[in-house]
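Forum: Protein Structure Q&A
Topic: Joint prediction for protein chains with partners

I've read a bunch of threads here and the consensus seems to be that you should model interacting components together rather than docking separate models afterwards. I'd like to see that in practice. Below is the full input, 327 residues plus whatever partners are listed. Could one of the regulars post the assembled result?
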Amino acid sequence: MPEEKAKGCALVTGASRGIGAATARLLAAEGWPVGINYRSDQEGAERVVGEIEEAGGRAFALRADVADPSAADELFTSLEEHFGPVLVLVNNAGVRDDGLSPQLKDDAWNRVIETNLSAAFRTTRRALRPMMRERFGRVVNIASIVGQRANPGQANYAASKAGLIAFTHTVAAEVARRSVTVNAVAPGLVETELTEDIGDEMLKAIPARRAGTPEEVAACVRFLVSDDASYVNGTTLTVDGGLTA
Amino acid sequence: MAAATKEQIEERMTEALVSFGAERDDVKRDADWESLDVDSLDLVELAQIVEEEYGVKMKEEDMKEMKTVGDAVDFVAERAGS
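Posted by a regular:
Agreed with the consensus. Here's the joint model:
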């Protein structure tokens, strides 16, 4: 059974499947009680909670659309009542709405920016004060290599992820001396529902010749959350099988 | 919550400033933030403490007006109704 953390818990947004679910499972195995946020996939979220509990950990499913400006406060308040202060925040919830820029609609632009970037800002803002008071905190933002490298058809997604990376670096510098770290993980092609329509052609461009797994990304998050990463701050850890090397 | 006295508020704020790294002997009413090495991040945390414990909101523009420990204590004491 995982040894439980002295106080506090972790919140993973978009944790009903994919990278979020894998991250929640690994953090629970490290002893963190975990809030499993989901928007629509209640079944998936409950499955993740069940898996964690079966392994001896603690988890709690929380429904909220993080793009809703009031979601952050509701999520945190609810989780604080269950598990105490949120000392680990993984901003993972993300959406895609692809299209070439000349045709990209305002709706598609706004939806992606709201969920991938603005929501992460709001959850982070809500998280930081308790973390600063505890003199411990870990924020990990799930970005993308698309935030650093062109991928035609994803101007909105790329802008949101590049914004998330710049946000990560800046906030890290603001709060570092309270022993709060803020880092990003930038996955390349990872096998999730978000990427299932991307063809095999892309695999040829990846030196590893395969897509990554959610667990391989989650392992990087686990490291950044761990005490071993206490001096790693404001950085972006790329996990892409060598694609951007 | 029971109204705190000005002395209690000053003691609590002193304790907070010491926890940010200020020397207790240097924390006096006329000490300014710079001399205590208190920066904007510390003031954000001080505002949180004051809000949680005395129900007094210190907005960013209020904090800009506060140059010394005494300014901050007076601001909170006035609004905390003591």
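The helical segments of chain A are 18-29, 42-54, 71-83, 106-134, 155-175, 201-205, 214-225.
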